[in-house]
Write a structure and sequence with these properties.
This protein is of the alpha/beta class. It has two domains: 202 residues, Alpha-Beta Complex (DHBP synthase), CATH 3.90.870.10; 89 residues, no CATH class. The protein is built from eleven helices and 14 strands. Strands 2-3-7-4-6-5-9-10 form an eight-stranded mixed sheet, sandwiched between helices. Helix 2 packs across helix 6 and helix 10 packs parallel to helix 11. It is globular and about 60 Å long. Bound molecules: threonylcarbamoyladenylate and magnesium ion. Threonylcarbamoyladenylate binds next to strand 5 and strand 6.
Amino acid sequence: MPVRSKALSSVRPRPLRARTYTGTPRNLATLARVLRSGGLVAAPTETVYGLAANALDADACKHIFLSKARPQTDPLIVHIEAIADLAKLAVVNPAALVLAKIFWPGPLTLVLPKTALVPAIVSAGLPSVAVRMPAHPLFRRLLRLAGVPLAAPSANPFGYVSPTTAQHVRDGLGDKISHILDGGPCSVGLESTIVDLRQPARPRVLRPGAITRAQLEQALGVPVLAPARRRTPATAVAQIAPGLLTRHYSPRTPVQLHTRLTTREVSSGDPREAWVFIAKPPVLRGKNIHWFDHRGDLPRVAQRLFALLRELDQAGFTRLHIELAPGRAGLADAINDRLRRAAAI
Ligand code: TXA
Ligand code: MG
């Protein structure tokens, strides 16, 4: 009797090879089916690409953590299609509704007490949940077609720079996931502003983003607290708001930050080290001279920030010297927050 032998390699699980989809109605219907049946889809939001799963399906959400190698102590953000869906997931208060009406759909995440509908794995066992209504038309269509809220952290391996293109997702997770929806580069480029509204009279920003503290204060009519100054140690696994881990969004190349880069400093520097300006410097040119935006326009700096960090991280420089955005308010605050995390060891 012939013995059927199978080469060992053929029984080993093959690494997944992500397929990239454009946003055609047919593809969106396919991807919505994947989500409804417990699968994962990486998809664009206006901030960064997210790795989405049905937020009400604990097993599907567990796969998010596995694919990203993300500790299960780091809670996920849940994305909804309409403000009316918020009350299913969270205990809503008037301040939350005020912000939702003004800033949704958009790059703002609200932290509120959670309802029983939210699986413990989504909130990392916390009694609260983070919810946002994204503005990206493709993500919104996916939400509508899937008919369920979608839990989605940034679609990158845990601790690395967030992805702002489908290619970034493929670079980081291409052998871990099967479906990537390509919607082009993200328009905002930084993760959403997270505001803690568990105590609505004392709102606090947990993570700065494109929606500023001043905008939130104007909408709410009360002071909004800044993120707590003391961050958790670089290597710790945070318990309360782990996105606040100091080392996050980090390239592998060491990063050194500068309040202002001067021509003299740069021209006497080591050519194996890169110098990154906020705006195009007047005279310096060379393979190691870079800038985020020609004019230093902050929305454009934000949009390009992660892409340039990734590009330079792969270019073989021994160090990245990066200039901080000028000022402390608004978008500069969010940009510098990400740069400081990129620099933390
Ligand atoms: O712009 C964004 O927010 C993107 C896109 C995909 O929507 N998502 C994103 O997710 O940045 P992620 O996983 O990279 O960040 C989630 C962070 C957590 O690390 C934590 O800081 C905060 O959201 N978070 C989630 N649930 C929370 C909760 N219950 N309490 C406090 N913070 C929470
Ligand atoms: Mg992230």
